Each structure stands twice: as structure tokens, then as C-alpha cells.
Amino acid sequence: MNVVHIEEGEGEPVLLLHGYPQSASCWRHQIPPLAERLENEYLGWMDTPRGRQTFVDFFGHYHVPAVPELAAGMGRIGCPTAIIWGDRDRYIPFSTARELAERIPGATLTRLAGGDHYIMEERPDEVTAALLELLARKPSLAG
To answer: Which alpha helices (DSSP H) does the chain contain, by range?
Structure first.
């Protein structure tokens, strides 16, 4: 497995996650406001509606088995967490976002009406605003 990390700015680390097969570049709209520098490695085919539809069509039938150990560990997450989701995601339903927000202590849920799976591409300003809100919160120490 390849893991990409981008080190920008100073202070506590920020972890931006998006599942397979996306790359770290799916956060390219958020990284500059968060760290004032853009890293660009984006696969251009995803810039088009047809490219996004191809992805949805392919992964709409891609079976991902449940991993109970991951679900069991969500209650132990002790860092500030933002769940940002488009409510028209055709790949992973909004109910998954609700479940994540319910299971992760102190998580915030931002529902972007009409947004699809590529919400950070489609609505970069709103996603960035939600992330900046998260960073402005004072972390509580889980104990």
C-alpha cells in the first residue's frame, strides 16, 4: 500500500482521509487554505462528469466486506473529527456518514445538500469552511 503525506505549515498534524482509489490530490482545494501551499498530483480524468460517472459505475458493483474491528475502534477515536458528506452520494449513502458521526466521539457532521461522492471537488469552499471550523475547535482530551 502506498501512503502519501504532505507536510505543510506548522503545528499539530491534520489528517485528511478519502478511501481507495482516490489520491491525496482530492484534497487539493483544501490544502492551500489549511497550509497555504498546493500539491498537485491529480488524475485529470476525474475533472469531468463522465470521469466521475465512470468511477461510480465501476465501484457501484465493487464489493467491500465489513471489517468489524474497524467499527469497534471508532469509539476510541480521541481527536477532533469532521465528517463532511454529500447527501446525494451514489457510492456511499449518507446513512454511512450519520453512523460514523454517531460512533466517533465528538465528531461533527456536515451535510452538503445535493453533493455527490466527490464533495471536496464539487463544493471546495464549503468543505474547506467545515475543515477550518474543525481546526478552530479546542480539542478535548479523551480520557
So the answer is: 31-35, 49-59, 68-73, 94-103, 119-122, 124-136
Report d(CA 77, CA 70) in Å as an integer: 11
Taking the C-alpha atoms of residue 113 and residue 71, their distance in angstroms, rounded to an integer, is 26
Amino acid found at 44: G
Q: Tens digits of per-residue pLDDT, 3-53? A: 666 666 666 566 676 655 566 667 777 776 766 533 333 345 566 777 777
Q: For the chain, which domains are there?
A: 24-60+68-136 (3.40.50.1820)
Q: Is 113 exposed, middle or buried (0-12, 13-18, 19+ CB in 10 A)?
A: exposed
Q: How far apart are CA 28 and CA 41, in angstroms?
A: 9
Q: Supply 123's cell numbers.
A: 463544493
Average pLDDT, rounded, for the chain = 76
Of 133, 14, 7, 127, whose CA–CA distance to 79 is shortest? 14
